[in-house]
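Dear V.,

Thank you for sending over the compound details. I've combined the ligand you provided, guanosine-5'-diphosphate, with the protein sequence from our construct and run the structure prediction for the complex. I'm sharing the raw inputs here so there's no ambiguity about protonation or stereochemistry in the SMILES, which I know was a concern on your side last time.
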Amino acid sequence: MDLVPTDLFSGNQENMKKYTTEQIRNVALISHGGAGKTSLAEAMLYTSGAVNRLGSVDAGNTTTDYDPEEVKRQVTINTSLAPVEWEGVKLNLLDTPGFFDFTVDVKSALRVADSAVVVVCAVSGVEVGTEKVWSYAEELELPRIVFINKVNRENANFDSALEQLNKFFGVKVFPLQFPVGEEEQFRGVVDLVKMKALIYEDEAGLSYKEEEIPDELSDKAEELREKLVEAAAETDDELMEKYLEEFTLSDEEIKKALRTGTLDGQIVPVLCGSATKNLGIQPLLDLMAGALPAPSDRPPMEGEVPEQEGEKTVRKADPAEPFSALVFKTLADPYVGRVNFFKVCSGSFKADSQVYNANRDKPERVGSLFFMRGKNQIQADEIPAGDIGSVTKLSVTITGDTLCDKNNPVIFPFIDFPEPVISFAVWPKSKGDEEKVGTGLSRFVEEDPTFKVERNKETKEMIISGMGDTHLDVIVDRLSKKFGVEVDLTTPKVPYRETIKGSQSKEGKYKKQSGGRGQYGHVYLSLEPMPRGEGFQFEDKIVGGVVPKQYIPAVEKGIIEAMEEGPVAGYPVVDIKATLYDGSYHTVDSSEMAFKIAAAMSFRSAMGAAEPVLLEPIMEVEVTVPENFMGDIMGDLNSRRGRIQGMVPGEGLQTIKAQVPLAEMFNYAIDLRSMTQGRGIFSMKHSHYEEVPYQEAEKVINAAKEEKEKE
Ligand SMILES: Nc1nc2c(ncn2[C@@H]2O[C@H](COP(=O)(O)OP(=O)(O)O)[C@@H](O)[C@H]2O)c(=O)[nH]1
Ligand SMILES: [Mg+2]
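Below is the predicted structure of the protein with guanosine-5'-diphosphate bound, written out as structure tokens.
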């Protein structure tokens, strides 16, 4: 098929020094959407000299939001990489999306990161997304630094943001700085280790002067310094002894304690600044390089040996170990082909080699290897353990796969992918584009484990499902840009079912006499309801061969075929038991066909008389929102015919569990977002089928009638 070329990857070649495992820091930038991760990555690139102008999200020219879909929406969609060279260390920044639709990218990035910088907005403080990403990092026991950003913004309040951090995440969240001036007045930070004020003078924020702490801030500085020394002393028995004797520690001792404390999670240091003003970036880079772990400081990766059930093995981030790498991101670009991003977990990855994909039991030929900086490629001959790189044109490898040495195979577990929350039926705008749409969508499935495509046999629609309307919107735009096809999305049909509430027995007789051989089939069926989810059961109670054995399967088949279209609105029939208890036959005229027809006739008339009803799918829904939205959310769920099952309180958040009909949930992802200003999240999965209430059923029946008449 024709592919529309895109310029996703620029092909620009850059150069970079070589770094050893110990000199690498893989740091994920995580936060609630909009706190400033992409801007912060840009500021770090600029401060380190990797780019010579400070790109901005608003102007659409940052290094890490390079995808046209990201520029258009001004939000990060894909995790992208930004290696920053600082003080002999390479910081591989993973700029993750904050938008909930793309949470999987955050989890994937954290799977390969060795630490994280949690960005918090000085105006909004701790938000739903902050808590989410914090809990992901906590689960993985990732060392963390907090950066309180946007101190220059109107209504910025460092102390209040810090207080919230302490409230939500405990006292281990510890300031190493506080701002000098806020909002427009923000001009530097008080460094509590150096006990100096770092004051910025140039517009670009590239240099600062160390000054005495201004008088009005010195009490606060003393007080916080005291706490800092105490916290540092607590990381180590020896330091504690010294502290108890001398009531103080040297700056060097504090720094060392900060590193130990950060590495083992006892301390989460807090820094502050402004990404867009490029203020406070150097101290952040210094701390990241100094206190965050190299891959070799982290516990070894655990994996399974393929085909040796239950056998575990570990890989250390050591170039001397056998080669292994974990693929954490796949991009399908029609122009360059498939791009896989990986972290080398052990050994080293050599260009122009052959490796083994352990998940798919397939060899892969490897050509060139690259480090990526946004969309720019930096060619690499060899990528050592711990480092992150990319490779194009592998044939079978996708997100989550382990590449390794064939003689030392290992499979690393990846992340659990969440179930999609929103679905649409997709229709090509021009007839004949069906195949192109199918091909395009299946490419996206390859690169995106949270995107699903399915042809619904019952409703005969092509259904796409994803993590939110923006997610699917992006897919539709990409379908047009990359594959040149335009599509419309419509609300999917609800896969209703039908069943009966009563029991009935009816006769079915099919008899035809038209010269020559006739047709004769004759049965009595009784139908009775079965519990939800039981499907279909057939019982043969014929005695004395009144319906001969060879025709019994035809009777069952006749019923099953008739069940495809129920009497209420033409939906499939479920949860019934059919018993064949009587009938008769004709030695010459009876046939399988005749019995099949007779069975269908008997089934239909029994169905119609046995109180047939419509069933609808009920979803198990979990909604998490800040407490103050509880009332609105419950009211809304009620109006969707939902039944509240329970509530689980959290720190400032509530999780509501409810059962809600699918028919009422198609727009929930969108409505929840607008009801909660983006602060609510939800998940849902199919639970069971239930009878549709009379008034609703009426609508469905009328719609089905209209549809039939149209045909
Ligand atoms: N005033 C101010 N705005 C900022 C700062 N950092 C980021 N922004 C703005 O906040 C918005 C979101 O920033 P972005 O980097 O895309 O956030 P992300 O979603 O975390 O990547 C953009 O409009 C930025 O220009 C800052 O330090 N001060
Ligand atoms: Mg971003």
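A first observation: The pocket of magnesium ion (ligand 2) is lined by residues 37-38, 65, 76, 95 (CB under 6 Å).

Warm regards,
I. M.
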